[in-house]
Amino acid sequence: MPLTFTLDPPVTPALRDGVLNLWTDVSNAGGAVGFVAPVTREEIRPELVKHMVAMAEGRNRLLVGQDETGDVAATAFFSFNTHRLMTHWVWLYTVMVHPKHQGRGYGRDLLAAAADEARRFDGMDAIRLTCRGGEGLERFYGSCGYKEVGRVPGAIRVAPGDDRDDITMLFPLT
């Protein structure tokens, strides 16, 4: 069953909790979304609050994918540039698909939905995102049309002695 994607859904307690649960489950399954397992909802909550404040201020937008039961199954946050010379591209952050849904093509569906939405944003030419090296994510994003445009070796310290590259990917919208 395909996911249903919604841009800027109403921020209800159910949505907030759904995103928080998703972020926790993805992190604890080893997902590279800003945390290292094990992590609790309470450790992730402050970061989610920052994202939601940015949404309320119009700096971020949320794309949510819901499964057939209405549960939050996937997310991506758009973050807009404020520098006048960089307003023609948007960042994509916290790109997640729930572990129980992985392997069904939902990640590709999420990225396609994000590209469709970004094309509707005024004057947008590209999407940029970063990913953690050592996870194969750059291959996945590459298979979805993203191109690696930068890499900072060892910029992400997952644990002492476990440094990973910070990889920047670009998806042209035109």
Can you tell me about this structure?
The structure is a single chain. The two termini are 30 Å apart. The chain has a seven-stranded mixed sheet, sandwiched between helices. The chain has helices at 13-28, 41-56, 106-120, 137-143, and strands at residues 4-7, 60-66, 72-80, 89-97, 126-132, 147-159, 162-172. A hairpin with an 8-residue loop joins strand 3 (72-80) and strand 4 (89-97). The protein has 174 residues and is an alpha+beta fold.
Defining traits:
seven-stranded mixed beta sheet, 174 residues, alpha+beta, single chain
Strand order of the largest sheet: 1-2-3-4-5-7-6
User: What structural class do you assign from the helix and strand content?
Assistant: alpha+beta
Helical fraction: 25-40%
Care to count the β-strands? 7
Query: How many helices in DSSP terms?
Result: 4
Unreliable runs: none
Q: DSSP strand (E) fraction?
A: 25-35%
- Average pLDDT works out at 97
Q: Characterize the main sheet.
A: 7 strands, mixed
Round the Cα radius of gyration to an integer and report it: 16 Å
Order of helices and strands: EHHEEEHEHEE
Based on Cα principal axes, name the global outline: globular
In angstroms, what separates the terminal alpha carbons? 30 Å
